[in-house]
Amino acid sequence: MFNEPALYSRRMAIKSASVGFGYLAFAGLSTMAAEKENLLAPKPTHFPARAKHVIFLCMEGAPSHVDTFDYKPKLKQDHGKTMSDARSRSAKLLGSPWDFKQHGQSGMWMSELFPELSRHTDDLCMLHGMHTDVPAHPQAFLRLHTGVSQFKRPSLGSWAFYGLGTENENLPGFVTISPPRNNGGPSNYGSAFLPAICQGTPINLGNPRFAGARRRGQASPSGIVGNIKNPQQSPDYQRLQLDYIQSINKKTLQLEEQNSEVEGAIESLELAFRMQSELPELMELSSETQATQSMYGIGEDATNNFGRQCLLARRFVEAGVRFVEVTSSQWDHHRNLQQDLTNKTESIDKPIAGLLADLKQRDLLKDTLVIWSGEFGRTPYAQGDDGRDHNHRGFTSWMAGGGTKGGLSYGSTDDYGAEAVEGRVHIHDWHATILHLLGLNHEQLTYRYAGRDMRLTDVKGNVVQEIMS
């Protein structure tokens, strides 16, 4: 039977998305948009949580573990020798050109590329036995974020938000700062079949594609969010318009027992309206002291951009955002390793050290899980004269705070860093462990879709209990 009010409601909701609240309200809205429960409300965990928030420092392009955090003296000793492993195609070993030293009470080894971060080794939990399935960027990057690479699936941040809700209903529960544009792009922070409100809200720093938004007065010096301001209507008029549209939407729900599109419209529009008042102020970094900004390297050429991202991440977590991802790209060093890796590590070293110090002095680190990782590692043998190829069989990621053991080096690769041999942690294990630290059982955090209960770890994943405090 033709239902004219319901049809009109859908049209009005879509129209309001383009006129009144735009990108914030309807970015990627799916047909399974929302459930009737308040998805923004804080939810009980499966067991006591060690962490309440996550900051994921994502290094897109796969940093070289053997030049940063995985000390391999034998690799340096055998520099120039032909690697005997048949899979190496008879390439010559490339010893790290950087020195490694032990730091902190833990005596953790770290490359000289990280002079600032090395002061925080006793807060870091190194995972040296990481491995994944394929050495191709798009597939490995999607697996890092969603657990799979063949299908569209919800991201880690979306699952965390779905399982926990948020601590601030005026802000999104999942924010991605300078989100990845390659290797799957929005699929890395999308909600797929989860309610659309669980997807990441992108905030772009220095992206020329969003220059128009800056001209329309929708950007602060700290970042850009599409359509955060309405240049045509005052907040009071927007509220009046929204109330009218929402009344139509609610009448539609009275006529139809269930309409996920309209339910999603109601929640998305309300969140977008609330964000207009709180988000711009939160993104304004000028309220921070000069000492705090300097601690992150803001104002310095090499560290300004990533420093702003890290400081924004701290501000979002402090305001109650559940999951924040910060992306640093261009870590794919097939050539010019010595110069390019030096430049990349310089750009993140001081900002990350500043983030850890800032979280700690504000008593936030104990409740905030900070994660650093790329999609895989690099080979111990050379590609050309000064580069490294992809290596999915062994690499390093690290965690800090949020209930992890500081000063711990867990797992290892072989003598050359080619393959994880002890304390092996697959991406499914990594995901299961992150959820566990948040108080979520990865086997119980499910969503019914396509006839079965779906989860982030599919049918795999083991929690790495050894790294927990």
UniProtKB/TrEMBL annotation:
InterPro entries: Alkaline_phosphatase_core_sf, DUF1501. Gene3D superfamilies: Alkaline Phosphatase, subunit A. It holds the Pfam family DUF1501. This is Sulfatase. Transmembrane segments: none annotated. Residues 212-232 are annotated as: Disordered.
